[in-house]
Automatic annotation (TrEMBL):
It comes from the Bacteria. This is 3-sulfinopropanoyl-CoA desulfinase. It catalyses: 3-sulfinopropanoyl-CoA + H2O = propanoyl-CoA + sulfite + H(+). Its EC number is 1.3.8.10, 3.13.1.4. Residues 122-218 form the Acyl-CoA oxidase/dehydrogenase middle domain. Belongs to the acyl-CoA dehydrogenase family. InterPro entries: Acyl-CoA_DH_CS (IPR006089), Acyl-CoA_Oxase/DH_mid-dom (IPR006091), Acyl-CoA_Oxase/DH_mid-dom_sf (IPR046373), AcylCo_DH-like_C (IPR036250), AcylCo_DH/oxidase_C (IPR009075), AcylCoA_DH/ox_N (IPR013786), AcylCoA_DH/ox_N_sf (IPR037069), AcylCoA_DH/oxidase_NM_dom_sf (IPR009100). Pfam families: Acyl-CoA_dh_1, Acyl-CoA_dh_M, Acyl-CoA_dh_N.
Amino acid sequence: MDFQLTEEQQMIQEAARDFAVNEIAPVAAELDASAEFPLDNIRKMGDLGLMGIEVPDSYGGAGLDTIGYVLAMIEVSAADASHGTIMSVNNSLFCNGILKHGSEDQKQRFVRAIASGEEIGAYALTEPQSGSDASTMKSRAVLSEDGSHYLINARKSWITSGPYARYLVLFASTKPEAGAKGITAFIIDTEEPGFSRGKTEPKLGIRASATCEIELADYRCPVAHRLGEEGEGFKIAMGVLDAGRIGIAAQAVGIAQAAYEASLSYARERKAFGAEIGTFQMIQQKLADMKTKLEAARLLTLHAAWAKQQAQKTGARFTVDGSMAKLFASEAAMWIAHQAVQLHGGMGYSKEMPVERYFRDAKITEIYEGTSEIQRMVIARSETGLR
């Protein structure tokens, strides 16, 4: 097994780190406090190729691999998880699905705009009454009599980047009686009549990443904007989430890395009872366990990225690899952030230090794109062969 990064992977990692340190980190706390969407930085990230890392350059992307994407996600998320969230949705949930299932016209029209950072993308699967059980969705799409368009009526919730998205991939049922096999995917232009946004959600963490409810009322979607064939939507949605979970695992690693590095620095500088607290056995135990969980999460995430790359060559599934990476990395991030707050003592509870933000941001990685409970179910079903 070769752990050596390629020159291209090192370049995107360094570019992401430089941008994160110089452009994101200085404004992260302020954006968290104000919940302001970092549109200017997202445009700059698009110019750097960070909003479409795996997108071929023929469609406006950087043309790199999944490992490069993971490395960049870690660096961006270590500076601010909100930027990482927006980056993840653009790369994993929007561009990935259209690249795999879209027509040439769809790739040129929709992927190019998102990969360049010119526009923002989103992914609309969850509904108020259907989260983990996505196949029970109430959204409906009816083909017109002349076969030119679909009339879509839908209400979707928890749409990341929804308040600012120009385009989104949306799932609706075209054949309700068929259950999951009756779901179809569509590409929605939010500037067309019939589309509306609800209030922006007041979230615990990733506060600069805007999230809202959306509604489509008699929205006319051209047949040319259907993604894949009728009835393939659920399969497309699950495949996109397989890839998306690798991005969330990388985000979790970034948060965990930031929390660990802040703790290591504090343990070296903070003194109590006449010595640096890093000399105390209990603090050393925390740091050792934090570092071990961090590196285990990093390796699982990089392995999942490698598995996705292999799947592109062989057609093999990487579902379990992505689920294991997301499960372990998200729970490691939450645990490490928790320990970071504890290690900082009273200062860890203060907004003057960034570790309380890491703690709040880490929690969402255990929830979105499949909760930890769902990841355990996916892994166990694969292992046992039972459902």
